[in-house]
UniProtKB/TrEMBL annotation:
<dbReference type="GO" id="GO:0061041">
    <property type="term" value="P:regulation of wound healing"/>
</dbReference>
<feature type="domain" description="Ig-like">
    <location>
        <begin position="226"/>
        <end position="309"/>
    </location>
</feature>
<keyword id="KW-0472">Membrane</keyword>
<dbReference type="InterPro" id="IPR003598">
    <property type="entry name" value="Ig_sub2"/>
</dbReference>
<feature type="signal peptide">
    <location>
        <begin position="1"/>
        <end position="27"/>
    </location>
</feature>
<keyword id="KW-0732">Signal</keyword>
<feature type="domain" description="Ig-like">
    <location>
        <begin position="127"/>
        <end position="216"/>
    </location>
</feature>
<keyword id="KW-0812">Transmembrane</keyword>
<dbReference type="InterPro" id="IPR036179">
    <property type="entry name" value="Ig-like_dom_sf"/>
</dbReference>
<keyword id="KW-1015">Disulfide bond</keyword>
<keyword id="KW-0677">Repeat</keyword>
<dbReference type="InterPro" id="IPR007110">
    <property type="entry name" value="Ig-like_dom"/>
</dbReference>
<dbReference type="GO" id="GO:0016020">
    <property type="term" value="C:membrane"/>
</dbReference>
<dbReference type="InterPro" id="IPR003599">
    <property type="entry name" value="Ig_sub"/>
</dbReference>
<dbReference type="GO" id="GO:0044291">
    <property type="term" value="C:cell-cell contact zone"/>
</dbReference>
<dbReference type="Pfam" id="PF08205">
    <property type="entry name" value="C2-set_2"/>
</dbReference>
<dbReference type="GO" id="GO:0043184">
    <property type="term" value="F:vascular endothelial growth factor receptor 2 binding"/>
</dbReference>
Length: 405
């Protein structure tokens, strides 16, 4: 067994036969070796001689055209070169090999009888990186059909679809193009909005690649209708404040135009629109209403609304001094001042309602209430102790009566 290396690709060479030609007392033999090479590489075709006595050696191509006659070129093809001619080994070299050079090369030894051996040249065509064809657009809720194609290889390449480390079975078809083969693998998968941008890959395996592979990466492009959401401001808006709304839009393809409008009315004069942003400065109650953001693409339309409610900006606080009474003695201490506030607060049931409230803080009254509470607690304690003592005395009175009986 012999070995040849072409483009770092090692292929075992098989001895076909040994022809023994008998002439008087010795035997002549010729051996031919099979060769496998990658397309575009260089092949060396060897004829080994035994007991060579100077007879004529002829090398022919698969079409039985003579390439070399005893080391002399016979065919005008510069790709063939005689690299070695010795009594033991005749070797020619073929560069830039193509699939059309494939076949049997004849090593002929002319003695009393003509004998030949055939060296078979095999050409491998590794696949290029496969391509991915999409039959139709992938739309949310539908299916997408993807076809991985390896247009040229020899022998036929093996294709495999992968997603997230898992193989997706495909329908494989193969076509014979004469010297090479084209292979395709088709898959059909359902798609949703979440599948947009999902990564897939098609891998091509081939004996000429060894443990390597050709990989084509592909990302799903799933089309879907837009979604719209208005990002509202935080807190309550009052007159004089500024309003800023942002319209968050998604979709594939992403809508280019975003439309702002006011339901049953026109947009305020002070409204400013910059793409997805809508602003109104110095708000007033005339701006109240429902505002709409709309977006659309080729696959649908979506909208979201925001209801603006502007409240009055009112807050009043007053201090009322105490009013002297005519019955108060002149020698008495001055009356304790009372702070009376008048303000407006928000009704918890309706954040927009304004409710007037009054609050008074009479410090003397507060002191009197606390004293009354303390006096009540002391009275309760006294009554409780008195009831407890009386009940014990009743028990002691009954004990002598029971002993007499």
């Amino acid at each position: 067994m012999a070995f040849a290396t072409v483009w770092n690709y090692c292929v075992p060479l098989t001895i076909i036969t040994v022809a023994c030609l008998v002439r008087t007392a010795h035997c002549q033999a010729v051996q031919a070796e099979n060769v496998t090479v990658l397309e575009g590489g260089t092949a060396q075709i060897s004829c080994r001689l035994q007991n060579y006595d100077g007879s004529i050696v002829v090398i022919q191509n698969p079409r039985r055209q003579t390439l070399f006659f005893n080391g002399t070129r016979a065919l005008k093809d510069d790709r063939f070169q005689m690299v070695l001619f010795t009594p033991r080994l005749v070797r020619i070299e073929l560069t830039n090999v193509s699939v059309f050079d494939e076949g049997g090369y004849f090593c002929q030894l002319y003695t009393d009888a003509t004998h030949h051996q055939v060296a078979t040249l095999s050409v491998l065509v590794p696949p290029e990186t496969p391509t991915v064809d999409v039959k139709q657009e992938a739309v949310e809720g539908g299916e997408v059909e993807l076809t991985c194609v390896s247009p040229r290889s020899k022998p036929a390449a093996t294709l495999r679809w992968m997603r997230n480390g898992r193989e997706i079975p495909g329908v494989v078809s193969q076509q014979d193009n004469g010297k090479t083969f084209s292979v395709s693998s088709t898959i059909r998968i359902p798609v949703e909005r979440k599948d947009n941008g999902a990564a897939l890959s098609c891998e091509a395996f081939h004996p000429a690649l060894g443990t390597q592979r050709r990989v084509r990466h592909y990302r799903l492009d799933v089309f879907f209708a837009p979604t719209v959401r208005i990002v509202p401001p935080s807190g309550i808006l009052r007159e004089g404040d500024s309003l800023s709304l942002t319209c968050s839009v998604s979709g594939n393809p992403l809508p280019r135009n975003i439309q702002w409008s006011k339901i049953n009315d026109t947009l305020p004069e002070r409204a400013e629109i910059s793409g997805p942003t809508f602003q109104i400065s110095r708000l007033s109650q005339s701006h109240n209403g429902t505002y709409l953001c709309q977006a659309q693409n080729n696959f649908g339309r979506a909208a979201d609304h925001y209801t603006l409610l502007v409240y009055d900006n009112v807050s009043v606080t007053t201090t009322v001094p105490p009013t002297p009474t005519s019955t108060q003695p002149l020698t008495s201490h001055p009356a304790t001042p009372t702070l009376l506030t008048r303000s407006f607060v928000l009704d918890p049931k309706d954040p927009g309602a304004v409710v007037e409230t009054h609050s008074a803080v009479p410090y003397a009254v507060i002191g009197g209430v606390l004293a009354l509470l303390v006096f009540t607690v002391i009275c309760v304690l006294i009554v409780t102790i008195w009831c407890s003592v009386r009940q014990k005395g009743s028990y002691r009175t009954r004990e002598p009566i029971l002993a007499w009986y």
